[in-house]
Amino acid sequence: NAGVTQTPKFQVLKTGQSMTLQCAQDMNHNSMYWYRQDPGMGLRLIYYSASEGTTDKGEVPNGYNVSRLNKREFSLRLESAAPSQTSVYFCASRITFANTGELFFGEGSRLTVL
Amino acid sequence: DAKTTQPNSMESNEEEPVHLPCNHSTISGTDYIHWYRQLPSQGPEYVIHGLTSNVNNRMASLAIAEDRKSSTLILHRATLRDAAVYYCILRDQVIKAAGNKLTFGGGTRVLVKP
């Protein structure tokens, strides 16, 4: 099993450009998450999805949109990238409604906005 | 949301134990305490979790205070590979139809000296 797969791993954008980060998991998990991590900082939750068809805002949702395409896939879209969105983005998944369900993370997508 | 407080950094010598504290004074009765660690240039990985009793696994031990307002992650014999950022998080209140929102703080950066 691949676990949580993120694409692309690296991306450079110009201010105002748009792009979509893709995330897929093969563990049949219900919940999926997008976090961002700025240099030297902890992770901040952008959006999460408890199940197919539902999404909710996290701590820092402004400037982002998400789509839970199906149970496996959860994408993060930047409609008009800004330099403040330069960060490493992590996708994660877990079993919903299980207090002990651990989070599984992808390897991260490093985004630079010029 | 119940929050956690951790020291920014700690140092340890190789082969010695490391005790990582976490304060969570506003923890609710059903919140589980989870620990994750993030190795350099990788996504976080699960370490251990607990509710009330102390827990042990192959990676670490978790000691939970009787009043649950604090906990300590114990690495029994630190190795160079244990140098990472360690995060203490609480499972947030379940909101029906929205699942579990999991938020990370800044974590503790552990430096292991040979």
Short account of what is shown:
Chain A has 114 residues and is mostly beta strands.
How would you explain this protein's 3D organization?
The complex is a heterodimer of chains A (114) and B (114). With 114 residues, chain A is an all-beta fold. Chain A has strands at residues 4-7, 10-13, 19-25, 31-37, 43-49, 56-57, 65-68, 74-78, 87-94, 104-105, 109-113. In chain A, the strands form two sheets. In chain A, strands 2, 4, 5, 6, 9, 10 and 11 form a seven-stranded mixed sheet that branches. Chain A has a four-stranded antiparallel sheet with strand order 1-3-8-7, with no helix packed on it. Chain A is globular, with a radius of gyration of 13 Å. Chain A starts with a strand and ends with a strand. Chain B is globular. The N and C termini of chain B lie far apart (39 Å). The model of chain B is unreliable at 95-99 (pLDDT under 50). The chains are: A mainly beta (114), B mainly beta (114). The interface between A and B is medium-sized, with 33 and 27 residues.
